[in-house]
Design a protein that fits this description.
single chain; 104 residues; mainly alpha; 3 helices
Length: 104
Amino acid sequence: MHVYFIGWAIGTALTGWLLSVFGFKANIVQSPETINGIKLFLSFLPAIACIISAVFIFFYPLYEKKVMKMNIELDEKKMDNYLSQSSVRKGYTGKLSYPLKFPI
């Protein structure tokens, strides 16, 4: 939960810093340079950040087969953990042949 507060603090500080860089002054008519700066950090800078994010997401090595394998491994670990904590151990070999969604 504290990570959100840190993110909000950084975002607020960055916004204030950018406004001061562009020459923003409260309660006065803004200069054309300030208005252009505000338009820049409300349009082009977020667009650039989205493009960079899209590139990282595109090259992230996560595909359906890998996700299914990870889900099976997680379900096996959950089942092993459950069985190690319970007295019911009959017939379980430690390997699942299908993806089991075990609610824990």
